[in-house]
Amino acid sequence: MRFPVRKFFSYYKPYLPLFLSVLACAFIVSALTLVFPLLVRYITKDVLEGDLSTALSEVYWIGGLMLVLVAIQNIGNYFVDYKGHEIGARMERDLRSELFAHMQKLSFSFYDKEKTGQLMSRLTNDLLQLSELYHHGPEDYLKYLIRFIGAFIILFFINAPLTIAVFCFLPFLGVFSLYFNKILNRALRRNKERIADVNAQVEDSLSGIRVVKSFTNELIEIEKFNRENNRFLDSRKNTYKAEAYFFNGVETFIQLITITVIIFGSTSIVNQILDLADLITFLLYVSFMIEPIQKLTHMSTQFQEGITGFQRFMEIMNLKPAIDNKSNAMTMPKVLGEITFQQVSFRYEDHLDDVFVNLSLTIQPGEYVALVGPSGAGKTTLCSLIPRFYDVTDGDVLLDGINVRDIDLQSLRKTIGIVQQDVYLFAGTVMENIRYGNPAASDEEIIVAAKHANADDFIMSLPNGYDSEIGQRGVKLSGGQKQRLSIARVFLKNPPVLILDEATSALDYESENIVKESLEMLAEGRTTIVIAHRLSTIRNAERIFVLTEDGIVEQGSHNELLARDGAYAHLYSKQFELQI
Ligand SMILES: Nc1ncnc2c1ncn2[C@@H]1O[C@H](COP(=O)(O)OP(=O)(O)OP(=O)(O)O)[C@@H](O)[C@H]1O
Protein backbone atom coordinates (compact mmCIF):
# COMPACT_ATOMS: atom_id res chain seq x y z
CA MET A 1 0.00 0.00 0.00
CA ARG A 2 1.41 3.39 -1.00
CA PHE A 3 1.49 5.84 1.83
CA PRO A 4 -1.52 8.20 1.50
CA VAL A 5 0.42 11.42 1.99
CA ARG A 6 -2.43 13.86 1.33
CA LYS A 7 -4.81 12.09 3.62
CA PHE A 8 -2.12 11.94 6.31
CA PHE A 9 -1.52 15.69 6.22
CA SER A 10 -5.21 16.54 5.99
CA TYR A 11 -5.54 15.85 9.73
CA TYR A 12 -3.44 18.95 10.48
CA LYS A 13 -6.12 21.18 9.01
CA PRO A 14 -8.15 21.96 12.16
CA TYR A 15 -4.98 22.81 14.08
CA LEU A 16 -3.08 24.61 11.35
CA PRO A 17 -2.59 28.04 13.04
CA LEU A 18 -1.37 26.49 16.28
CA PHE A 19 0.74 23.94 14.45
CA LEU A 20 2.39 26.62 12.32
CA SER A 21 3.24 28.58 15.46
CA VAL A 22 4.81 25.43 16.92
CA LEU A 23 6.81 25.00 13.70
CA ALA A 24 7.88 28.65 13.73
CA CYS A 25 8.99 28.27 17.32
CA ALA A 26 10.92 25.08 16.47
CA PHE A 27 12.54 27.01 13.61
CA ILE A 28 13.68 29.84 15.89
CA VAL A 29 15.00 27.44 18.53
CA SER A 30 17.04 25.54 15.93
CA ALA A 31 18.40 28.66 14.31
CA LEU A 32 19.50 29.95 17.73
CA THR A 33 21.30 26.68 18.44
CA LEU A 34 23.50 27.34 15.42
CA VAL A 35 24.82 30.54 17.01
CA PHE A 36 26.48 28.81 19.98
CA PRO A 37 29.53 27.28 18.23
CA LEU A 38 30.13 30.64 16.52
CA LEU A 39 30.25 32.32 19.91
CA VAL A 40 32.60 29.60 21.17
CA ARG A 41 34.79 30.14 18.12
CA TYR A 42 34.83 33.88 18.78
CA ILE A 43 36.00 33.45 22.36
CA THR A 44 38.50 30.69 21.50
CA LYS A 45 40.09 32.81 18.80
CA ASP A 46 40.44 35.72 21.24
CA VAL A 47 42.01 33.50 23.87
CA LEU A 48 44.33 31.74 21.40
CA GLU A 49 45.47 34.94 19.78
CA GLY A 50 46.62 36.16 23.21
CA ASP A 51 44.41 39.22 23.62
CA LEU A 52 43.51 38.08 27.11
CA SER A 53 42.11 41.30 28.63
CA THR A 54 39.69 41.79 25.70
CA ALA A 55 38.94 38.08 25.82
CA LEU A 56 37.96 38.27 29.49
CA SER A 57 35.53 41.14 29.03
CA GLU A 58 34.09 39.47 25.96
CA VAL A 59 33.65 36.21 27.85
CA TYR A 60 31.26 38.07 30.18
CA TRP A 61 29.06 39.66 27.57
CA ILE A 62 29.11 36.55 25.38
CA GLY A 63 28.27 34.48 28.47
CA GLY A 64 25.38 36.88 29.17
CA LEU A 65 24.23 36.61 25.57
CA MET A 66 24.36 32.83 25.81
CA LEU A 67 22.16 32.95 28.92
CA VAL A 68 19.57 35.04 27.08
CA LEU A 69 19.69 32.66 24.12
CA VAL A 70 19.29 29.66 26.42
CA ALA A 71 16.29 31.30 28.11
CA ILE A 72 14.64 32.00 24.73
CA GLN A 73 15.40 28.46 23.60
CA ASN A 74 13.94 26.89 26.70
CA ILE A 75 10.75 28.93 26.56
CA GLY A 76 10.46 28.02 22.87
CA ASN A 77 11.10 24.34 23.61
CA TYR A 78 8.46 24.36 26.34
CA PHE A 79 5.89 25.70 23.89
CA VAL A 80 6.95 23.23 21.18
CA ASP A 81 6.88 20.25 23.57
CA TYR A 82 3.63 21.06 25.28
CA LYS A 83 1.54 22.41 22.42
CA GLY A 84 3.13 20.11 19.83
CA HIS A 85 2.27 17.03 21.85
CA GLU A 86 -1.20 18.35 22.52
CA ILE A 87 -1.84 18.82 18.80
CA GLY A 88 -0.51 15.29 18.14
CA ALA A 89 -2.79 13.84 20.82
CA ARG A 90 -5.79 15.74 19.43
CA MET A 91 -5.10 14.42 15.95
CA GLU A 92 -4.76 10.88 17.25
CA ARG A 93 -8.11 11.38 19.01
CA ASP A 94 -9.65 12.61 15.73
CA LEU A 95 -8.42 9.58 13.82
CA ARG A 96 -9.69 7.23 16.48
CA SER A 97 -13.12 8.86 16.45
CA GLU A 98 -13.23 8.79 12.67
CA LEU A 99 -12.27 5.13 12.59
CA PHE A 100 -14.87 4.21 15.19
CA ALA A 101 -17.57 6.16 13.34
CA HIS A 102 -16.55 4.45 10.10
CA MET A 103 -16.66 1.03 11.75
CA GLN A 104 -20.20 1.77 12.88
CA LYS A 105 -21.15 2.20 9.23
CA LEU A 106 -19.60 -1.03 8.00
CA SER A 107 -21.98 -3.83 7.22
CA PHE A 108 -22.56 -7.24 8.76
CA SER A 109 -20.52 -8.92 6.05
CA PHE A 110 -17.45 -7.02 7.31
CA TYR A 111 -18.02 -8.10 10.91
CA ASP A 112 -18.60 -11.70 9.77
CA LYS A 113 -14.98 -11.74 8.60
CA GLU A 114 -13.19 -9.65 11.23
CA LYS A 115 -12.35 -10.54 14.80
CA THR A 116 -13.52 -8.05 17.41
CA GLY A 117 -10.23 -8.13 19.33
CA GLN A 118 -8.27 -7.32 16.19
CA LEU A 119 -10.53 -4.37 15.45
CA MET A 120 -10.09 -3.16 19.01
CA SER A 121 -6.35 -3.29 18.47
CA ARG A 122 -6.65 -1.15 15.34
CA LEU A 123 -8.56 1.43 17.32
CA THR A 124 -6.19 1.54 20.26
CA ASN A 125 -2.68 0.13 19.79
CA ASP A 126 -2.28 0.98 16.14
CA LEU A 127 -2.93 4.66 16.63
CA LEU A 128 -0.81 5.10 19.75
CA GLN A 129 2.35 6.33 18.03
CA LEU A 130 0.48 8.59 15.65
CA SER A 131 0.45 11.54 18.01
CA GLU A 132 4.25 11.31 18.23
CA LEU A 133 4.55 11.07 14.47
CA TYR A 134 2.17 13.97 13.89
CA HIS A 135 3.95 16.12 16.42
CA HIS A 136 7.58 15.09 16.08
CA GLY A 137 7.50 14.21 12.39
CA PRO A 138 7.34 17.64 10.73
CA GLU A 139 8.70 19.56 13.70
CA ASP A 140 11.79 17.41 14.19
CA TYR A 141 12.47 17.15 10.49
CA LEU A 142 12.29 20.93 10.21
CA LYS A 143 14.40 21.46 13.31
CA TYR A 144 17.07 19.03 12.22
CA LEU A 145 17.00 20.13 8.60
CA ILE A 146 17.73 23.70 9.67
CA ARG A 147 20.57 22.55 11.90
CA PHE A 148 21.86 20.31 9.19
CA ILE A 149 21.80 22.90 6.41
CA GLY A 150 23.05 25.64 8.75
CA ALA A 151 25.89 23.45 9.97
CA PHE A 152 26.76 22.51 6.39
CA ILE A 153 27.01 26.15 5.25
CA ILE A 154 29.09 27.18 8.24
CA LEU A 155 31.33 24.10 7.90
CA PHE A 156 31.79 24.88 4.23
CA PHE A 157 33.04 28.35 5.07
CA ILE A 158 35.38 27.03 7.75
CA ASN A 159 36.92 24.37 5.54
CA ALA A 160 35.39 23.31 2.22
CA PRO A 161 37.50 20.19 1.44
CA LEU A 162 36.95 18.75 4.92
CA THR A 163 33.21 19.45 4.64
CA ILE A 164 33.03 17.68 1.30
CA ALA A 165 34.93 14.69 2.78
CA VAL A 166 32.34 14.50 5.57
CA PHE A 167 29.46 14.75 3.16
CA CYS A 168 30.78 11.92 1.00
CA PHE A 169 29.46 9.51 3.63
CA LEU A 170 25.93 10.84 3.50
CA PRO A 171 24.60 9.19 0.30
CA PHE A 172 25.67 5.80 1.69
CA LEU A 173 24.01 6.62 4.96
CA GLY A 174 20.84 7.63 3.06
CA VAL A 175 20.64 4.37 1.11
CA PHE A 176 21.38 2.38 4.27
CA SER A 177 18.60 4.19 6.17
CA LEU A 178 16.04 3.75 3.40
CA TYR A 179 16.76 0.04 3.21
CA PHE A 180 16.40 -0.46 6.94
CA ASN A 181 13.34 1.72 7.19
CA LYS A 182 11.64 -0.65 4.79
CA ILE A 183 12.65 -3.65 6.88
CA LEU A 184 11.55 -1.88 10.06
CA ASN A 185 8.22 -0.97 8.52
CA ARG A 186 7.58 -4.61 7.67
CA ALA A 187 8.67 -5.79 11.13
CA LEU A 188 6.52 -3.20 12.90
CA ARG A 189 3.52 -4.06 10.76
CA ARG A 190 3.96 -7.71 11.78
CA ASN A 191 4.15 -6.55 15.44
CA LYS A 192 0.83 -4.79 15.08
CA GLU A 193 -0.78 -7.83 13.49
CA ARG A 194 0.54 -10.07 16.24
CA ILE A 195 -0.62 -7.84 19.10
CA ALA A 196 -3.99 -7.67 17.36
CA ASP A 197 -4.04 -11.50 17.42
CA VAL A 198 -3.24 -11.41 21.13
CA ASN A 199 -6.12 -8.99 21.67
CA ALA A 200 -8.46 -11.16 19.62
CA GLN A 201 -7.51 -14.17 21.72
CA VAL A 202 -8.12 -12.26 24.96
CA GLU A 203 -11.46 -11.00 23.71
CA ASP A 204 -12.54 -14.46 22.60
CA SER A 205 -11.47 -16.21 25.81
CA LEU A 206 -12.88 -13.61 28.17
CA SER A 207 -16.17 -13.25 26.30
CA GLY A 208 -16.59 -16.99 26.56
CA ILE A 209 -15.26 -17.30 30.12
CA ARG A 210 -18.42 -19.07 31.29
CA VAL A 211 -18.04 -21.74 28.61
CA VAL A 212 -14.32 -22.02 29.39
CA LYS A 213 -15.02 -22.64 33.04
CA SER A 214 -17.97 -24.95 32.51
CA PHE A 215 -15.78 -27.19 30.33
CA THR A 216 -12.83 -26.60 32.72
CA ASN A 217 -10.78 -25.68 29.68
CA GLU A 218 -8.72 -22.94 31.33
CA LEU A 219 -5.49 -24.69 30.39
CA ILE A 220 -6.46 -24.87 26.73
CA GLU A 221 -7.23 -21.15 26.78
CA ILE A 222 -3.93 -20.40 28.51
CA GLU A 223 -2.13 -22.45 25.87
CA LYS A 224 -3.93 -20.62 23.04
CA PHE A 225 -3.09 -17.31 24.65
CA ASN A 226 0.54 -18.24 25.17
CA ARG A 227 0.83 -19.31 21.53
CA GLU A 228 -0.27 -15.86 20.38
CA ASN A 229 1.81 -14.16 23.05
CA ASN A 230 4.91 -16.06 21.90
CA ARG A 231 4.23 -15.19 18.26
CA PHE A 232 4.13 -11.56 19.37
CA LEU A 233 7.45 -12.04 21.15
CA ASP A 234 8.97 -13.57 17.99
CA SER A 235 7.87 -10.61 15.90
CA ARG A 236 9.30 -8.21 18.47
CA LYS A 237 12.59 -10.08 18.48
CA ASN A 238 12.77 -9.59 14.72
CA THR A 239 12.05 -5.90 15.13
CA TYR A 240 14.76 -5.46 17.74
CA LYS A 241 17.21 -7.32 15.51
CA ALA A 242 16.44 -4.95 12.61
CA GLU A 243 16.68 -1.97 14.96
CA ALA A 244 20.03 -3.13 16.34
CA TYR A 245 21.44 -3.51 12.80
CA PHE A 246 20.10 -0.13 11.86
CA PHE A 247 21.16 1.85 14.93
CA ASN A 248 24.63 0.36 14.99
CA GLY A 249 25.07 0.78 11.25
CA VAL A 250 24.27 4.48 11.63
CA GLU A 251 26.64 4.73 14.60
CA THR A 252 29.40 3.22 12.43
CA PHE A 253 28.85 5.88 9.80
CA ILE A 254 28.98 8.56 12.47
CA GLN A 255 32.19 7.17 13.90
CA LEU A 256 33.69 7.10 10.40
CA ILE A 257 32.72 10.75 9.95
CA THR A 258 34.28 11.74 13.30
CA ILE A 259 37.52 9.84 12.58
CA THR A 260 37.72 11.48 9.14
CA VAL A 261 37.36 14.94 10.70
CA ILE A 262 39.99 14.22 13.34
CA ILE A 263 42.52 12.81 10.82
CA PHE A 264 41.95 15.45 8.13
CA GLY A 265 41.57 18.22 10.72
CA SER A 266 44.81 17.35 12.50
CA THR A 267 46.76 17.13 9.24
CA SER A 268 45.25 20.46 8.21
CA ILE A 269 46.48 22.04 11.46
CA VAL A 270 49.95 20.56 10.87
CA ASN A 271 49.86 21.96 7.32
CA GLN A 272 48.61 25.26 8.75
CA ILE A 273 45.46 25.22 6.63
CA LEU A 274 43.31 25.24 9.77
CA ASP A 275 43.81 26.64 13.28
CA LEU A 276 42.73 25.00 16.55
CA ALA A 277 39.74 27.33 17.04
CA ASP A 278 38.44 26.36 13.60
CA LEU A 279 38.93 22.67 14.33
CA ILE A 280 36.98 22.96 17.62
CA THR A 281 34.22 24.86 15.83
CA PHE A 282 34.30 22.34 13.01
CA LEU A 283 33.93 19.45 15.47
CA LEU A 284 31.04 21.23 17.22
CA TYR A 285 29.19 21.74 13.93
CA VAL A 286 29.87 18.17 12.88
CA SER A 287 28.25 17.10 16.14
CA PHE A 288 25.32 19.37 15.20
CA MET A 289 25.02 17.47 11.96
CA ILE A 290 25.44 14.12 13.62
CA GLU A 291 22.90 14.73 16.37
CA PRO A 292 19.99 15.03 13.91
CA ILE A 293 21.07 11.79 12.25
CA GLN A 294 21.26 10.03 15.63
CA LYS A 295 17.98 11.47 16.89
CA LEU A 296 16.07 10.74 13.70
CA THR A 297 17.50 7.23 13.62
CA HIS A 298 16.31 6.53 17.14
CA MET A 299 12.94 8.11 16.46
CA SER A 300 12.55 6.22 13.23
CA THR A 301 11.00 3.26 15.08
CA GLN A 302 8.39 5.55 16.57
CA PHE A 303 7.81 7.22 13.21
CA GLN A 304 7.59 3.90 11.43
CA GLU A 305 5.13 2.67 14.06
CA GLY A 306 3.04 5.74 13.40
CA ILE A 307 3.27 5.16 9.65
CA THR A 308 2.26 1.49 9.85
CA GLY A 309 -0.53 2.44 12.26
CA PHE A 310 -1.76 5.00 9.75
CA GLN A 311 -1.57 2.48 6.91
CA ARG A 312 -3.62 0.00 8.93
CA PHE A 313 -6.05 2.80 9.80
CA MET A 314 -6.46 3.56 6.10
CA GLU A 315 -7.07 -0.11 5.25
CA ILE A 316 -10.31 0.10 7.23
CA MET A 317 -11.14 3.69 6.21
CA ASN A 318 -10.88 2.69 2.55
CA LEU A 319 -13.51 0.00 2.96
CA LYS A 320 -16.86 1.11 1.69
CA PRO A 321 -19.86 -0.23 3.60
CA ALA A 322 -21.24 -3.14 1.56
CA ILE A 323 -24.70 -1.75 2.26
CA ASP A 324 -25.22 1.96 2.01
CA ASN A 325 -27.83 4.53 1.13
CA LYS A 326 -28.53 5.37 -2.49
CA SER A 327 -27.97 9.04 -3.19
CA ASN A 328 -31.72 9.56 -3.61
CA ALA A 329 -32.79 7.16 -0.85
CA MET A 330 -36.25 7.96 0.45
CA THR A 331 -37.44 8.33 4.01
CA MET A 332 -40.48 6.19 4.70
CA PRO A 333 -43.61 8.08 5.66
CA LYS A 334 -46.12 5.99 7.56
CA VAL A 335 -45.36 2.30 7.15
CA LEU A 336 -48.23 -0.18 6.92
CA GLY A 337 -45.96 -3.20 7.04
CA GLU A 338 -46.54 -5.15 3.82
CA ILE A 339 -43.46 -7.26 3.10
CA THR A 340 -42.80 -8.86 -0.26
CA PHE A 341 -39.98 -11.11 -1.37
CA GLN A 342 -39.85 -11.18 -5.17
CA GLN A 343 -37.81 -13.98 -6.73
CA VAL A 344 -35.19 -13.54 -4.06
CA SER A 345 -31.93 -15.45 -4.19
CA PHE A 346 -29.25 -15.09 -1.57
CA ARG A 347 -25.72 -16.33 -1.03
CA TYR A 348 -23.31 -15.29 1.75
CA GLU A 349 -20.10 -13.65 0.58
CA ASP A 350 -17.34 -16.17 -0.16
CA HIS A 351 -19.87 -19.02 -0.03
CA LEU A 352 -20.49 -21.32 -2.96
CA ASP A 353 -24.05 -22.35 -2.18
CA ASP A 354 -27.16 -20.22 -2.29
CA VAL A 355 -29.18 -20.18 0.92
CA PHE A 356 -32.30 -19.85 -1.24
CA VAL A 357 -33.11 -19.28 -4.90
CA ASN A 358 -36.07 -17.49 -6.49
CA LEU A 359 -38.01 -17.28 -3.27
CA SER A 360 -41.27 -15.33 -3.37
CA LEU A 361 -43.79 -14.54 -0.67
CA THR A 362 -45.94 -11.67 0.54
CA ILE A 363 -46.90 -10.82 4.10
CA GLN A 364 -49.90 -8.53 4.53
CA PRO A 365 -49.82 -5.42 6.75
CA GLY A 366 -50.52 -6.40 10.35
CA GLU A 367 -50.39 -10.13 9.54
CA TYR A 368 -48.93 -12.56 12.11
CA VAL A 369 -46.97 -15.20 10.27
CA ALA A 370 -44.56 -17.92 11.27
CA LEU A 371 -41.50 -19.23 9.52
CA VAL A 372 -40.63 -22.83 10.27
CA GLY A 373 -38.30 -25.37 8.81
CA PRO A 374 -35.22 -27.42 9.49
CA SER A 375 -32.18 -25.85 11.10
CA GLY A 376 -29.97 -24.07 8.59
CA ALA A 377 -32.79 -23.69 6.04
CA GLY A 378 -32.32 -19.91 6.09
CA LYS A 379 -35.12 -18.54 8.28
CA THR A 380 -32.92 -16.01 10.09
CA THR A 381 -31.18 -15.13 6.86
CA LEU A 382 -34.49 -14.46 5.12
CA CYS A 383 -35.57 -12.09 7.89
CA SER A 384 -32.20 -10.29 7.89
CA LEU A 385 -32.85 -9.24 4.30
CA ILE A 386 -35.78 -7.04 5.35
CA PRO A 387 -33.71 -4.50 7.36
CA ARG A 388 -30.89 -4.96 4.79
CA PHE A 389 -28.43 -6.52 7.19
CA TYR A 390 -27.45 -8.26 3.96
CA ASP A 391 -28.50 -7.43 0.41
CA VAL A 392 -30.17 -9.98 -1.83
CA THR A 393 -27.95 -11.57 -4.46
CA ASP A 394 -30.88 -11.48 -6.85
CA GLY A 395 -34.51 -10.36 -6.79
CA ASP A 396 -36.13 -7.72 -4.59
CA VAL A 397 -37.42 -7.22 -1.09
CA LEU A 398 -40.21 -4.67 -0.83
CA LEU A 399 -41.68 -2.84 2.12
CA ASP A 400 -45.13 -1.41 1.37
CA GLY A 401 -44.30 -1.97 -2.31
CA ILE A 402 -41.04 0.02 -2.14
CA ASN A 403 -37.74 -1.69 -2.77
CA VAL A 404 -35.79 -1.69 0.50
CA ARG A 405 -32.69 -0.63 -1.46
CA ASP A 406 -34.48 2.65 -2.26
CA ILE A 407 -35.26 3.43 1.36
CA ASP A 408 -32.94 5.39 3.63
CA LEU A 409 -31.29 2.79 5.87
CA GLN A 410 -32.07 4.56 9.14
CA SER A 411 -35.64 5.07 8.13
CA LEU A 412 -35.94 1.42 7.06
CA ARG A 413 -34.38 0.01 10.23
CA LYS A 414 -36.52 2.25 12.42
CA THR A 415 -39.58 0.46 11.10
CA ILE A 416 -38.36 -2.99 12.14
CA GLY A 417 -38.06 -4.37 15.67
CA ILE A 418 -36.17 -7.59 16.32
CA VAL A 419 -36.32 -9.82 19.35
CA GLN A 420 -33.79 -12.61 19.25
CA GLN A 421 -32.96 -15.62 21.33
CA ASP A 422 -29.52 -14.15 21.94
CA VAL A 423 -30.25 -10.98 23.85
CA TYR A 424 -27.49 -8.39 23.89
CA LEU A 425 -27.62 -5.93 26.74
CA PHE A 426 -25.01 -3.27 27.38
CA ALA A 427 -23.21 -2.73 30.66
CA GLY A 428 -25.20 0.02 32.37
CA THR A 429 -28.50 0.44 34.15
CA VAL A 430 -31.87 -1.09 33.36
CA MET A 431 -33.12 2.35 32.39
CA GLU A 432 -30.25 2.94 29.96
CA ASN A 433 -30.75 -0.44 28.34
CA ILE A 434 -34.45 0.06 27.72
CA ARG A 435 -33.84 3.60 26.52
CA TYR A 436 -31.68 2.11 23.79
CA GLY A 437 -34.96 1.47 21.94
CA ASN A 438 -35.61 5.18 21.75
CA PRO A 439 -32.95 7.53 23.11
CA ALA A 440 -35.46 10.39 23.22
CA ALA A 441 -37.92 8.53 25.48
CA SER A 442 -38.81 9.94 28.88
CA ASP A 443 -38.44 7.91 32.10
CA GLU A 444 -42.22 7.54 32.24
CA GLU A 445 -42.34 6.10 28.72
CA ILE A 446 -39.62 3.65 29.69
CA ILE A 447 -41.60 2.49 32.70
CA VAL A 448 -44.72 2.04 30.55
CA ALA A 449 -42.68 -0.02 28.05
CA ALA A 450 -41.29 -2.15 30.89
CA LYS A 451 -44.83 -2.72 32.19
CA HIS A 452 -45.99 -3.84 28.74
CA ALA A 453 -43.03 -6.22 28.63
CA ASN A 454 -43.97 -7.70 32.05
CA ALA A 455 -40.63 -6.43 33.30
CA ASP A 456 -41.68 -3.74 35.78
CA ASP A 457 -42.19 -6.17 38.71
CA PHE A 458 -38.78 -7.73 38.55
CA ILE A 459 -37.10 -4.38 37.86
CA MET A 460 -38.69 -2.90 40.98
CA SER A 461 -37.40 -5.82 43.03
CA LEU A 462 -33.80 -5.07 41.97
CA PRO A 463 -31.70 -3.20 44.58
CA ASN A 464 -31.88 0.13 42.76
CA GLY A 465 -34.94 -0.43 40.60
CA TYR A 466 -34.53 1.10 37.16
CA ASP A 467 -31.12 2.45 38.16
CA SER A 468 -29.71 -1.00 38.92
CA GLU A 469 -26.54 -1.92 37.08
CA ILE A 470 -27.05 -5.10 35.12
CA GLY A 471 -23.37 -5.99 34.56
CA GLN A 472 -21.48 -6.79 31.38
CA ARG A 473 -24.00 -8.08 28.84
CA GLY A 474 -26.60 -8.22 31.61
CA VAL A 475 -24.95 -11.04 33.60
CA LYS A 476 -26.82 -10.09 36.74
CA LEU A 477 -30.17 -10.97 35.14
CA SER A 478 -31.86 -14.26 34.30
CA GLY A 479 -32.50 -15.28 30.70
CA GLY A 480 -36.19 -14.45 30.97
CA GLN A 481 -35.46 -11.07 32.59
CA LYS A 482 -32.97 -10.17 29.87
CA GLN A 483 -35.51 -11.15 27.25
CA ARG A 484 -38.16 -8.95 28.85
CA LEU A 485 -35.79 -5.98 28.84
CA SER A 486 -35.14 -6.56 25.16
CA ILE A 487 -38.90 -6.67 24.55
CA ALA A 488 -39.35 -3.43 26.52
CA ARG A 489 -36.72 -1.91 24.26
CA VAL A 490 -38.76 -2.86 21.19
CA PHE A 491 -41.99 -1.60 22.79
CA LEU A 492 -40.25 1.73 23.17
CA LYS A 493 -39.08 1.66 19.59
CA ASN A 494 -42.65 0.95 18.52
CA PRO A 495 -41.92 -0.36 15.01
CA PRO A 496 -44.67 -1.39 12.58
CA VAL A 497 -42.79 -4.57 11.64
CA LEU A 498 -41.63 -7.16 14.14
CA ILE A 499 -39.31 -10.12 13.81
CA LEU A 500 -39.29 -12.61 16.67
CA ASP A 501 -36.39 -14.95 16.08
CA GLU A 502 -36.63 -17.89 18.47
CA ALA A 503 -37.35 -15.33 21.15
CA THR A 504 -38.59 -17.80 23.74
CA SER A 505 -36.71 -20.94 22.83
CA ALA A 506 -34.00 -20.57 25.46
CA LEU A 507 -36.44 -20.02 28.32
CA ASP A 508 -37.97 -22.39 30.84
CA TYR A 509 -41.69 -23.00 30.85
CA GLU A 510 -42.57 -20.31 33.37
CA SER A 511 -40.39 -17.61 31.83
CA GLU A 512 -41.59 -18.62 28.40
CA ASN A 513 -45.19 -18.01 29.39
CA ILE A 514 -44.46 -14.56 30.81
CA VAL A 515 -42.36 -13.61 27.79
CA LYS A 516 -44.92 -15.07 25.37
CA GLU A 517 -47.62 -12.95 26.92
CA SER A 518 -45.58 -9.78 26.45
CA LEU A 519 -44.63 -10.79 22.92
CA GLU A 520 -48.28 -11.25 22.04
CA MET A 521 -48.97 -7.75 23.30
CA LEU A 522 -46.00 -6.46 21.36
CA ALA A 523 -47.21 -8.10 18.16
CA GLU A 524 -50.62 -6.46 18.32
CA GLY A 525 -51.21 -4.20 15.33
CA ARG A 526 -47.81 -4.94 13.78
CA THR A 527 -46.72 -7.14 10.91
CA THR A 528 -45.05 -9.96 12.79
CA ILE A 529 -42.80 -12.74 11.60
CA VAL A 530 -42.12 -15.43 14.15
CA ILE A 531 -39.32 -17.88 13.64
CA ALA A 532 -39.90 -20.91 15.81
CA HIS A 533 -38.58 -24.37 16.23
CA ARG A 534 -41.19 -25.36 18.76
CA LEU A 535 -44.21 -25.60 16.52
CA SER A 536 -46.58 -25.60 19.48
CA THR A 537 -45.75 -21.91 19.94
CA ILE A 538 -46.98 -20.80 16.54
CA ARG A 539 -50.28 -22.59 16.25
CA ASN A 540 -52.15 -19.30 16.35
CA ALA A 541 -50.20 -17.79 13.44
CA GLU A 542 -52.45 -16.62 10.59
CA ARG A 543 -50.11 -18.22 8.09
CA ILE A 544 -47.20 -20.54 8.49
CA PHE A 545 -44.45 -20.72 5.84
CA VAL A 546 -42.39 -23.88 5.70
CA LEU A 547 -38.88 -23.10 4.49
CA THR A 548 -36.62 -25.98 3.50
CA GLU A 549 -33.57 -26.17 1.27
CA ASP A 550 -36.04 -26.25 -1.65
CA GLY A 551 -37.46 -22.85 -0.66
CA ILE A 552 -40.98 -22.22 0.66
CA VAL A 553 -42.57 -25.63 0.22
CA GLU A 554 -45.85 -25.02 2.05
CA GLN A 555 -47.93 -22.21 3.47
CA GLY A 556 -51.24 -22.01 5.31
CA SER A 557 -52.72 -22.08 8.79
CA HIS A 558 -51.75 -24.71 11.31
CA ASN A 559 -54.90 -26.71 10.68
CA GLU A 560 -54.65 -26.40 6.89
CA LEU A 561 -51.07 -27.58 6.92
CA LEU A 562 -51.82 -30.50 9.23
CA ALA A 563 -54.70 -31.50 6.94
CA ARG A 564 -52.36 -31.34 3.94
CA ASP A 565 -50.18 -33.96 5.63
CA GLY A 566 -47.00 -32.63 4.01
CA ALA A 567 -43.71 -31.21 5.31
CA TYR A 568 -45.30 -29.26 8.17
CA ALA A 569 -47.39 -32.20 9.35
CA HIS A 570 -44.26 -34.32 9.21
CA LEU A 571 -42.23 -31.79 11.28
CA TYR A 572 -45.10 -31.44 13.72
CA SER A 573 -45.60 -35.12 14.27
CA LYS A 574 -41.85 -35.57 14.77
CA GLN A 575 -41.87 -32.94 17.51
CA PHE A 576 -45.02 -34.33 19.02
CA GLU A 577 -43.45 -37.81 19.16
CA LEU A 578 -40.34 -36.38 20.80
CA GLN A 579 -42.43 -34.62 23.43
CA ILE A 580 -44.23 -37.87 24.27
N1 LIG B 1 -23.07 -14.75 8.65
C1 LIG B 1 -23.05 -15.88 7.92
N2 LIG B 1 -22.03 -16.08 7.07
C2 LIG B 1 -22.01 -17.19 6.31
N3 LIG B 1 -22.93 -18.15 6.35
C3 LIG B 1 -23.96 -18.01 7.20
C4 LIG B 1 -24.07 -16.87 8.03
N4 LIG B 1 -25.18 -16.98 8.77
C5 LIG B 1 -25.75 -18.15 8.41
N5 LIG B 1 -25.02 -18.78 7.47
C6 LIG B 1 -25.35 -20.03 6.78
O1 LIG B 1 -26.56 -19.83 6.08
C7 LIG B 1 -27.44 -20.91 6.22
C8 LIG B 1 -28.77 -20.45 6.79
O2 LIG B 1 -28.57 -20.05 8.13
P1 LIG B 1 -29.73 -19.44 9.01
O3 LIG B 1 -29.18 -19.05 10.32
O4 LIG B 1 -30.46 -18.41 8.24
O5 LIG B 1 -30.68 -20.71 9.16
P2 LIG B 1 -31.91 -20.92 10.12
O6 LIG B 1 -32.96 -21.60 9.32
O7 LIG B 1 -32.29 -19.64 10.76
O8 LIG B 1 -31.28 -21.92 11.17
P3 LIG B 1 -31.67 -22.16 12.71
O9 LIG B 1 -33.09 -22.63 12.71
O10 LIG B 1 -30.75 -23.24 13.12
O11 LIG B 1 -31.47 -20.88 13.42
C9 LIG B 1 -26.71 -21.93 7.08
O12 LIG B 1 -26.14 -22.89 6.22
C10 LIG B 1 -25.64 -21.14 7.78
O13 LIG B 1 -24.50 -21.91 7.97
UniProtKB/TrEMBL annotation:
Alphabetically ordered keywords of this record: ATP-binding, Membrane, Nucleotide-binding, Transmembrane, Transmembrane helix
Organism: Neobacillus novalis
InterPro entries per record: AAA+_ATPase, ABC1_TM_dom, ABC1_TM_sf, ABC_transporter-like_ATP-bd, ABC_transporter-like_CS, P-loop_NTPase, Type_1_exporter
Domain ABC transmembrane type-1: 22-305
Bilayer disposition of the protein: Multi-pass membrane protein
Residue span(s) of domain ABC transporter: 339-574
Transmembrane parts of this sequence: 15-39, 59-80, 141-158, 164-184, 245-266
Superkingdom classification of source: Bacteria
Cellular component annotations (GO), alphabetically ordered: plasma membrane
A single GO molecular function term of this UniProt record: ABC-type oligopeptide transporter activity
Protein name: ABC transporter ATP-binding protein
Membrane is among the record's keywords: yes
Any matching Pfam family: ABC_membrane
Sequence similarity: Belongs to the ABC transporter superfamily.
Annotated localization: Cell membrane
Tagged with keyword Membrane: yes
